[in-house]
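Cross-check.
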Amino acid sequence: QLQLVESGGGLVQPGGSLRLSCVVSGTMSDYHTIGWFRQTPGKEREGISSIFTYDHSTFYAASVKGRFTISRDNANNTVFLQMDNLKPEDGGLYYCAASRLPITRGAPLYIGGYGIWGQGTQVTVSS
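Predicted model, tokenized:
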């Protein structure tokens, strides 16, 4: 059974940084795309960033572009989300998700394209 395990969440002050990690079971080649999603109370889960596992394509939500960086370490089956210049509105429960089927470049953060989900890691941005 394919699994994803997130880590790296925590409490950080505005302007600070955090790096989230997502370790995937199996090998990176078992997946087409790995993404990060955020859930906050009263809101729908939203796509933050995603990365193809076979090339260097990366995708970002407009709200985080220029501040967040997604990357992958295939040798260690890990995807990272480096979050810099964090704002209070960046807080939430961050989920790692994976798709084994191709994700279209036209909708790389479409939640319905991802079938495997981790348990989430909490990020709180507050002074």
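Residues 67 and 84 are 5 Å apart (CA to CA). The mean pLDDT is 95. Passed to J.P. for a second look.
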